[in-house]
UniProtKB/TrEMBL annotation:
Entry-linked Pfam families: RF-1
Gene3D superfamilies: 3.30.160.20
Domain Prokaryotic-type class I peptide chain release factors: from-to ranges: 62-171
One MF term in the entry's GO annotations: peptidyl-tRNA hydrolase activity
GO biological process: mitochondrial translational termination
Lineage start: Eukaryota, Fungi, Dikarya, Ascomycota, Pezizomycotina
Originating organism: Monilinia vaccinii-corymbosi
Protein name per Swiss-Prot or TrEMBL: Prokaryotic-type class I peptide chain release factors domain-containing protein
Length: 233
């Protein structure tokens, strides 16, 4: 079968165009995109701690108003499901977290959400009490338990802040190892209890722990050597 010259030229042109290499498009990495933001966890934690300390200085058993809670009463259950009292005296008090968050600092609210009284589906705190046959006493006890729970969260979550004077004394102690601990203690009129307190705080610092131990051992050995020489004389 013969083909015309025009058909042969057209076929060759189509084959040539199909074999051309397609150049890849530039990747998105060449674009000038903004990088991810960085956040300081330490500064945020310290800010939360400071806010909690300030709030706690004015915290009392009336800080959380009773009106934001809702209390219902049911019969107390005994062995075998029997009702202990004829009247419904068991108090079941619920605080919406939305209301509590408007009163409590964020670090305390987080602690409540991690606690056993938190009801995730309702996003609320629920506390029950049936220790008394009196509705009023049981209701007040639920509020008292929430108050104690908040105090416990603060105590176990928010670290204490050392006074400026204490920080300066500790700094002076750690930055003046050549002076000797005993001279420092005598110069600052520090007794046994206060000395133990400062040494315990210093030992928490990993960088100073080894140096402190070595210096204490060296001072003890030096004192023992001097005592021994005095006896030999």
């Amino acid at each position: 079968m013969r083909y015309s010259s025009a058909f042969v030229k057209l076929t060759a042109k189509l084959l040539q165009s199909s074999l051309q290499v397609v150049k890849p498009r530039p990747l998105l990495s060449n674009l000038d995109l903004p990088g991810p933001k960085s956040y300081s966890v330490q500064s945020t934690d310290e800010a939360e701690y400071e806010a909690a300390r300030k709030w706690h200085s004015e915290f009392n058993d009336s800080t959380i108003p009773e009106k934001i809670a809702k209390t219902t009463y049911v019969h107390s259950g005994g062995a075998g499901g029997q009702k202990v009292n004829k009247t419904a005296s068991k108090a079941n008090t619920v605080w919406p977290m939305k209301e509590l968050e408007a009163i409590l600092p964020p670090i305390i609210s987080k602690g409540l959400r991690r606690g056993t009284h938190y009801v995730k589906n309702a996003d609320a705190i629920q506390i029950q009490c049936d220790s008394s046959r009196s509705r009023t006493k049981n209701q007040k006890e639920t509020h008292q338990r929430l108050y104690e729970e908040v105090k416990h969260i603060y105590k176990t979550t928010v670290p204490g802040k050392a006074s400026i004077e204490q920080q300066q004394r500790v700094k002076h102690l750690t930055e003046s190892p050549k002076e000797g601990f005993k001279k420092f203690f005598r110069a600052n009129h520090m007794g046994g209890k206060e000395i133990r307190k400062y040494l315990k705080q210093l030992r928490r610092d990993k960088e100073n722990k080894k140096r402190i131990r070595q210096q204490l051992v060296a001072e003890a050995n030096s004192e023992a050597t001097q005592t021994k020489r005095g006896r030999n004389k």
